[in-house]
Design a protein that fits this description.
single chain; 352 residues; alpha/beta; nine-stranded mixed β-sheet; six-stranded parallel β-sheet
């Protein structure tokens, strides 16, 4: 039995906790938050035996075998490095850190410890997305020509003008909070990105609140890609991925306001003249009607426990998380210099 301690009383308690409880090989035994009294109450309500008012007590407790982190990016590196130094596997959130230097620190700590690490890139664990990935890998649409991503929503932070890491561009903003997911899943679907240009922008009356990103990219395969993301889109069109190949077209379409749930998969192969639906049923998701995030995260949690038990490193780990951090850094630099930047996997190795 792997005993899990969770640092973070919001996402950690609401999503990570039920996700880990799906797997009978682990038990969540501890919860840590900033307020000791509140954390004690929340832990009791969630039937978690141990509660702490700071992360250090949780990480160092002998009854905690592995640590799950759900904090702001600037706090995550110190927690992860300490846990890994104690020989404890770490399940972390994206982005790994607020900057490349701290992400590098985490990646080095993971490599030196040899312990299992996971980064919560959860879109790739949606079963509809897994089916789309399988179809692409099977050659259902032939060689990929280009991919288009559009993601238009209005998140709570933007709507309420909350100034925190999710809205400000110091490691977060639209780039860290949303585009980190996109850069990960685009390489998962399409292979390595080897060049990009980027344009980041803000609300007209709040220039420090980074809300929009437009990125053009090229892939090592020769395919091209475009990404447009806005978290300032009232009644936005949702999240849409379009893959265009030599022999067909594949689309993932979510018109709803739920980030994880609601994706439809559509496929057309030559000589079809219309798209057809590809049905997928997620039995785990049906168990959690109130939150579409839990089922995808539960699959990452299971892979995390698998890695601990078998001594194998299953992606996405800190190496993949660091790769995304490199891409985020390049996107921000491309925006700052206003030009196309060439790069590749070798760029990641140099950064390490």
């Amino acid at each position: 039995m792997v005993r899990i301690g969770i640092v973070g009383c919001n996402y950690g308690r609401l999503v990570q906790l039920p996700a880990f409880r799906v797997d009978p090989r682990c038990e969540v035994v501890a919860l840590a938050g900033r307020d000791a009294d509140r954390t004690t109450e929340l832990a009791k309500a969630a039937r978690v035996p141990l509660a702490f008012g700071n992360w250090e007590q949780l990480v160092e407790h002998p009854d905690v075998d592995a640590v799950a982190i759900a904090t702001e990016p600037n706090l995550q590196p110190e927690i992860a490095v300490r846990a890994l130094g104690l020989g404890k596997p770490v399940f972390a959130e994206k982005p790994m850190a607020a900057d490349l230097a701290q992400a590098k620190r985490m990646a080095h700590a993971a490599e030196e410890s040899g312990r299992m690490t996971t980064v919560d890139f959860n879109f790739c664990e949606i079963l509809t997305w897994r089916r789309a990935k399988a179809l692409l890998d099977e050659g259902a649409i032939g060689r990929l020509r280009h991919v288009e991503v559009s993601w238009n929503v209005e998140n709570y932070g933007t709507r309420m003008r909350i100034r925190n890491w999710k809205t400000l561009g110091n490691g977060g903003g639209v780039l860290g909070n949303f585009v980190s997911h996109c850069l990960h899943y685009l390489e998962w679907f399409c292979g390595p990105i080897n060049g990009m240009s980027a344009r980041l922008s803000s609300l007209p009356d709040e220039p420090t609140m980074e809300t929009n990103a437009g990125i053009s990219m090229s892939f090592a395969s020769g395919a091209a890609g475009n990404l447009v993301m806005s978290c300032a889109s009232y009644l936005g069109s949702g999240h849409r991925l379009e893959f265009y190949g030599e022999d067909g077209t594949l689309m993932l379409i979510n018109d709803s306001t739920d980030y994880m749930r609601g994706f439809r998969l559509r496929l057309a192969q030559r000589p079809a003249t219309a798209m057809s639906d590809v049905e997928t049923v997620d039995e785990t998701d049906l168990r959690f009607p109130s939150d579409g995030r839990i089922a995808p995260v539960s699959r990452l949690a299971t892979a995390f426990i698998d890695g601990i038990e078998r001594g194998l490193h299953t992606p996405p780990g800190f190496a993949e998380g660091f790769r995304v951090q490199v891409l985020l850094d390049i996107a921000r630099r491309a925006n700052d210099v206003g030009t196309w930047l060439d790069m590749g996997m070798e760029n990641t190795e140099k950064q390490l």
